[in-house]
Amino acid sequence: MANSKYAHQDSLPLQPSVRYEYVKSFERCQPDILLPNTWIVIRIDGRGFHKLTAKYGFEKPNDRRALELMNAAAVGVFKELPDLVLGYGISDEYSFIFHKDCNLFERRAAKLITTVATTFTSHYIHLWPTYFAGKPPLTPPMPSFDGRAVMYPSVRNLRDYMSWRQVDCHINNLYNTTFWTLIQRGGLDAAAAEQRLSGTVAADKNEILFKDFGINYNNEDDLFKKGSVVFRAYELVDVVPTTTEKQKDGGEARVDEEDDDAAVVVLSKTAAEKERKRRAKATVAVEHVDVIRDDFWLRRPWILSGRAGKLKE
Amino acid sequence: MANSKYAHQDSLPLQPSVRYEYVKSFERCQPDILLPNTWIVIRIDGRGFHKLTAKYGFEKPNDRRALELMNAAAVGVFKELPDLVLGYGISDEYSFIFHKDCNLFERRAAKLITTVATTFTSHYIHLWPTYFAGKPPLTPPMPSFDGRAVMYPSVRNLRDYMSWRQVDCHINNLYNTTFWTLIQRGGLDAAAAEQRLSGTVAADKNEILFKDFGINYNNEDDLFKKGSVVFRAYELVDVVPTTTEKQKDGGEARVDEEDDDAAVVVLSKTAAEKERKRRAKATVAVEHVDVIRDDFWLRRPWILSGRAGKLKE
Amino acid sequence: MANSKYAHQDSLPLQPSVRYEYVKSFERCQPDILLPNTWIVIRIDGRGFHKLTAKYGFEKPNDRRALELMNAAAVGVFKELPDLVLGYGISDEYSFIFHKDCNLFERRAAKLITTVATTFTSHYIHLWPTYFAGKPPLTPPMPSFDGRAVMYPSVRNLRDYMSWRQVDCHINNLYNTTFWTLIQRGGLDAAAAEQRLSGTVAADKNEILFKDFGINYNNEDDLFKKGSVVFRAYELVDVVPTTTEKQKDGGEARVDEEDDDAAVVVLSKTAAEKERKRRAKATVAVEHVDVIRDDFWLRRPWILSGRAGKLKE
Amino acid sequence: MANSKYAHQDSLPLQPSVRYEYVKSFERCQPDILLPNTWIVIRIDGRGFHKLTAKYGFEKPNDRRALELMNAAAVGVFKELPDLVLGYGISDEYSFIFHKDCNLFERRAAKLITTVATTFTSHYIHLWPTYFAGKPPLTPPMPSFDGRAVMYPSVRNLRDYMSWRQVDCHINNLYNTTFWTLIQRGGLDAAAAEQRLSGTVAADKNEILFKDFGINYNNEDDLFKKGSVVFRAYELVDVVPTTTEKQKDGGEARVDEEDDDAAVVVLSKTAAEKERKRRAKATVAVEHVDVIRDDFWLRRPWILSGRAGKLKE
User: Fold this and answer.
1) Of the four listed, A86, B241, D113, D140, which is most buried by Cβ atoms within 10 Å?
2) CATH class for the region spanning D32-154+223-239+277-303
């Protein structure tokens, strides 16, 4: 009888899944839920990009196409993940920020990290031929990115994170610009250039660039000097000048203390859907601007409020 | 004087990085080190692949090209990460296993998960045109994968994990094969097919396939029935038949109890380097074989020992 | 020769500690650092106190001596841990709160939890004979407490935690008071009393107490109705009446939004030492007051600021 | 009407618990489940015991009463927590070990740590007057203990942990014995004694004790030399002498490799209850024996198997 075949056909026990399913319980042990009411920063970094830049002949100290590819991939991520409120990219690293009220994937860290990192990678590989047209195609080992999640409880912490990255950008770029100018135009080798810069402060490097090579660092491209800031572009808000004055006097920024602890507002389903649509309609902007001073935040209140602004006409 | 320009040129405070660097301390709070001496399983899953299969017209119940693309991406991952000892893929999910002695990235979970997931994604996107030649190219939203890390303390736990996944493969594939046969050849719609299968056990589904459609499930492709097992291919080891006999009698597998708790052996640098080279030389195999019974493990002792086997001539 | 004895004297390998010390590395895997800039709540709960209350004949619904012993133990904890800013006790549970700027034990969770829990236990056992004089002495099984740590990023979250516990106190005490009155004075058995209360709201329970037994719940002891709030007692601050008016109108509390995100101020060593001394000098108060409305917080600004107030004369 | 009183009686909102209960969700974020199938070690340490030993005049280098009080408290913990399989105490620290199959409190770390630590503290304070009779009573600051949980995947790891602690005991005790002998009998001050011991190895210290003071360290009390091992006392098992021979030859211990990966056996409720009763009947032993060599483990197989042995008559 035909049926008898099935009995040993596969010798797979027929309903043994229960026997092995206990292994699922081991998954609970990787702690994973990010603390509610904290800003979530996912930062990804290129893996082994030193080799990559050599293999594909990236320009030094900055390769414009490579940075624009990073930015294009980041924009791709923003379009697929409407919960993102802010991004910041320098060199081969990118930070993606979810609002403190965000509940995507129930705030599970592994899911948030891998979703951001693989979506970024997916766009990066997909767009590579566009940005490196005329170059030999990608071959293994392929570009990849590692990532991590960090929580920041307050707006002050979040802004300090952004400031930290932008200061890093400034310091690294000033160093690299001077270093490579000494090599490319000054004829030094790497060791000599490093030696020349040893112990110098920012003013010294500006001086070397200006006196020895006639370069005013101030005129360098903001893409290189300030990095890339990614956000949804609504209409900018006018800011009363007094605030700006105060800042000029070295006053502490205060933007962060106003809305930090607003009670958590849960939107109705309709409101949430409307909100989502407005976000989806907004274009994703990439700008090379200062994020350390208040101005950036005051004029784009939707970033910290997490509420869509007024769509541009 | 030229220098005076620099003073406010950028109005970036000149050495303020220290002021913001405290934010780094927040990174320590995501617990991340995976327990030493445990097997590490990184499992990735396609995100929103239901939509993807619709968008690109994947064949039902199994799309061979799609599965082969997954396998090719997995092989790419194995070639870039010599620490991997085993992989297993079904549908849009893939498991990657690091040996319990592995110390890659100091066992930091976020780094391991994102490296595996983005390397896989990178190869997947890169190889897509090869496997889907003649189809319209990829457009956003792009394929992406989420991932997680799970630790298993013993070989028994690890093998049970593999068995769990392979049993899942079997159950899902038998269901899907019958479901789609009822639709594609039986003319039922999805609701009717689901209704027909409601409450059936494996034997019933085999019967439907055989009696109504003349299909012997046993003859279906092992790629679909057993999933894909990835490992480094050294020369297989002969296994004494008695062991096999014992298994036929339903005896418990014992392979796992032999080498489980061998003292941790730290290789000398030279030995480790030699080991690494042998691994790099080994081809990466993708086979569709049973991993539930002992045979698979006994004939490939290098998987559980973590030591390179004898290279094939 | 005498020395030869030592060779096998102990047969302990003489310097083998290095061989085993690798086990220390396993300790890194219990994630433990609590996120900086978050309020830390350590809540402990009596283990098996149902049996304990039976064994030692605690009065129902509330045993004053038992609650006063809990409070005395909490005061003992406050005196030994000057970093604590607030405590709250009901029944057999106690919450201890460290300021968000607190860096005690580098914010390691296990150390914070166990230190609070064992210091509390130590005082509890030590003081038991004082509070239960004339009763038979403690015998095993001994009272013990389990504990946990929870982080709250904002003052609003922290105050909501306190409100949650005090509302719980109110709900439980109203229920218990009515339940035990029905039994002790109404002659019902437990099942009948439970049945009588099934489906009742607060107003119903008040009515039962008042109409059937002449008890105005409002006149019950605040120790039972409000629980016990522990803090360091400095001079209360006068609060402008307008705030109070606003609250009467049901306005949202605002105290939390003012100082929530003040930049982290690091005290000089001298200042920190001075601060510590003032805290040590302050008496530890236990009061049975409302912590839901603003008044409590406005008049004791040192709790949220974390800075010692003005010592009482 | 009487009822109207209740309306504002308390001005507590009547059913607001829902409003605040969201704070419970923050508790999920302290990762807490210990990995299944791993040995759990809870180690507690006396806090500030240096001051305590001075305050209560503990004898140097070892105070027998203080150690016996630690042991008595540990026995109290064993009697209240039948899941414990092994304990080890030296100085003011104690390790408590749960079997890898233990599921107490669903393996939640915070609950396990605090329960062990507070139960220990409770017995310690309770028994203090018994062990320090004739001394002034305890006064604040009170003895307290911090604690931590560590997971070990294999028997080898667990035994190495025990060996590590016992080797530490040996090293510390030899040092302390020599140090205090130099002071108490040699008339040196602390600085001179420290100087005298600087750079010495174990053999040197043995020599100092023997030549200068006629002390054979070998004859010191095992309580001091080996620490205290706590376990449930069933009938010892006879061990074939060959094993012992092998060890004498420096052979690796093998006891750990035999039962390490036995499949997880889930007992029936009746069997589990029977098991529990046998454990409760067993006396709790405190012995000062070697736990580094195999003999201890081979003769007490119930420790690693987790199954009650044969009760002594």
Assistant:
1) D113
2) alpha beta
